[in-house]
Amino acid sequence: MTPEQPTPDHLLSILVRDEPRVLTRITALFGRRGYNIKSLSVGTTEHPGVSRMTIVVSGDRGVVEQAMRQLEKLHDVVKIIDHSLEKYVDRELVLVKVAINPETRVEVRQIAEDFRSRIVDVGRHALTFEVTGDEGKITAFIEQLRPFGILETMRTGRIALTRGSNADIPAHVYHPGETQTLQPVLSAEPREERAREVPNLF
Amino acid sequence: MNGAKALWATLANHGISTVFGYPGGAIMPVYDALTFYPEVRHVLTRHEQGAAHAAEGWAKATGELGVCMATSGPGATNLVTGLADAMLDSVPLLAITGNVASHLMGTDAFQEADITGITLPITKHNYVVRDVAELPRIVAEAIRIARSGRPGPVLVDIPKDIQLAAFAGQIPAPQARPEAPAPNPEALARARELLRGAKKPVMMVGGGSLDAAAEITALARAWDIPVITTLMGLGTFPASDPLWLGMPGMHGSVAANRAISEADVLLGLGLRFDDRVTGRVSGFAPHAAIIHVDLDAAEIGKIVRTHVPVRGDAAQAARLLAEGAQPLPRAEWRAQLDAWKARTETPGHWGAGYAVKAVVDRLRPDDLLSSDVGQHQMLAAQLARFEKPRRWINSGGLGTMGFGLPAAIGAGMAEPGVRSVVIAGDGGFQMTAQELATLKMYDIRNVKICIINNSYLGMVRQWQELFHEKRYSEVWLGDSNPDFVKLADAYDVPAYRASTAEELPGAIDAWLANPKSALLEVVVPHEHGVFPMVPAGAALSEMIETEPARPGAPTPEASEA
Ligand SMILES: Cc1ncc(C[n+]2csc(CCOP(=O)(O)OP(=O)(O)O)c2C)c(N)n1
């Protein structure tokens, strides 16, 4: 037996038409094919009718490419961005509740300050911090606090945008000015456009 | 105009001439509006599963959209098997379901089922219409999605109040099918290079190539590459051509499976390397560089490692690959293949294979041949000699028993001038036998049903014989089968029976000569296997070529004694 290698994480942004059951369709696709979603966050975008999901999946490159190609076939999916292919910024918001006592209070506050974390709730025996950052920062923060006794944490899941001035949502996704509807999945030409977002696509 | 009329107007505008369906409370406005649209024919089947398979049969024969329709709840859920079947076989299908009124949806109202939720994983896409103004646009979009790219089933669920609501908008015209992306020239160049250097090349074509038969035939002849057609691709390459090697996989031919196991280059077009085709994946085409052409990028590299991926339409890719072809001297390879081909056995003595061969030998090139699922299906696939695509109508991906008769009806209605023959087992026939009523109701004259009656769920019995030490668990039908001739008679369908090799030719003549749709029951020995066979989980090279000797296998008769 070889020691188990941790499977790498992949950060995907999926732009979807904001319609009923979209979330179910996407998560069902991951579920049925046995791909494990590690984190999922969804929100609206600057374009009415388009939502943006950030999904972290673990699996080797092949698994993730297969997942993306399956996603690409869904009528609801407008565009998929694999962030490993470009530079990106990513963030996660975490709430951490840490046990304190008179001896540790100052030290805990000092750690929080070093991480530019804000206190959002103060109790007699616990402090709750809000911390925003990329994965490394959040992990480091939690590890610093762990010895004091972490009572609860809640994470939003990661969100990401590509760096630079490129907009992730291509202009043609949307009828400018017209009704609030998307172009019917963007007819032939934009469908190819979407295909090009899937890496290694021949 | 109400929503229901807008639905029919949209369907009529899209050239839909025939819809298979079954009414009910939640779709009554649609059936009411139907009376105003005589240009669309509605065919009442006797079960919604029959409607779905008939629509599939229509689509598989013609390549055009099949349409089926059902009411909410139980009607809609009865479509599910057909939708799953269409999904796995990439059949363009539109399913329209009625549903309870919008305000009742989600309340567990009478005959409510969350059909869009249920069919989520077995449709290409599905919709609930929430605003009558959107109805025609959604139906038009559903039709486009079902037909474009890799085809598949799309379901549109219409609540009853939307069917009744007033509609004042435009009825959309059909949109042109979007063109397939052009295959990458670099990938094509690499593919050509591989073919040029190949000493033992083989081509394998699947259901995604049905509309590329001419191009594929030209490609194979230009490079002098032998061709294997999968269960779904039968007919894409003419069986009479010496380059044809037969079908691959679990019940594939010796030549096809050996060729795959020996090949140095395997060119796959429009196929998805199903496990019934590959056998154990690690043992599949172990020496071959694989070129895979498919419209659906998700299929490429999904099962087998691919050396040259080509995303695109099979016809276009085949045409481009044929350019600059140079048939190379491959005498050794050809000699080897011919030797393997010579091992094809023709069923010599009386049994299911003998009967199936006698029937398929009578087919004309234009005849449609549908099958149900089981041994008779594999025998038909092995023994029929298709010269053209879209003549073989079968449930490949899902393996749906009960598919045969309704599919043959749908295909036969699409091509009323063509004989629509169906081969079924005594088990599967009884799953949709009530569709004999559909034959009677519409006086359909071109459907010829052949039941191969071995008194068993034969295919399961074969597995029990081989892999469960002949413990024949729940597969014996002999004591409870109906008298199939009388059953047909009850529906006014003329019927014939043959129980011996001597009786068979005369019975086939009478059956085919009858100007009406007719049924032929062939009573065959109970125990008879389909070979060659690659056991599940084995590699293609581990094929059992011929039926093992059978020293006194226990039969139900013997155990009765
Ligand atoms: C709906 C459905 N149920 C069960 C099966 C499993 N199954 C596959 S072949 C078969 C036996 C079919 O028997 P029969 O129709 O008599 O045909 P034969 O194999 O004897 O030719 C069964 C039960 C199936 N494919 N479809």
From TrEMBL, chain A:
Catalytic reaction list: 2 pyruvate + H(+) = (2S)-2-acetolactate + CO2
Annotated SUPFAM superfamilies: ACT-like (SSF55021)
EC number: 2.2.1.6
Oligomer status and interactors: Dimer of large and small chains.
Protein known as: acetolactate synthase
Gene3D superfamilies, per database record: 3.30.70.260, ACT-like. Chain A, domain 2
Protein family per UniProt: Belongs to the acetolactate synthase small subunit family.
Pfam families: ACT_AHAS_ss, ALS_ss_C
PANTHER family documented for this protein: ACETOLACTATE SYNTHASE SMALL SUBUNIT, ACETOLACTATE SYNTHASE SMALL SUBUNIT 1, CHLOROPLASTIC
GO molecular function, one term: acetolactate synthase activity
Domain ACT: from-to ranges: 11-85
Keywords for this protein: Amino-acid biosynthesis, Branched-chain amino acid biosynthesis, Transferase
Pathway: Amino-acid biosynthesis; L-valine biosynthesis; L-valine from pyruvate: step 1/4; Amino-acid biosynthesis; L-isoleucine biosynthesis; L-isoleucine from 2-oxobutanoate: step 1/4
Highest taxon above the source species: Bacteria
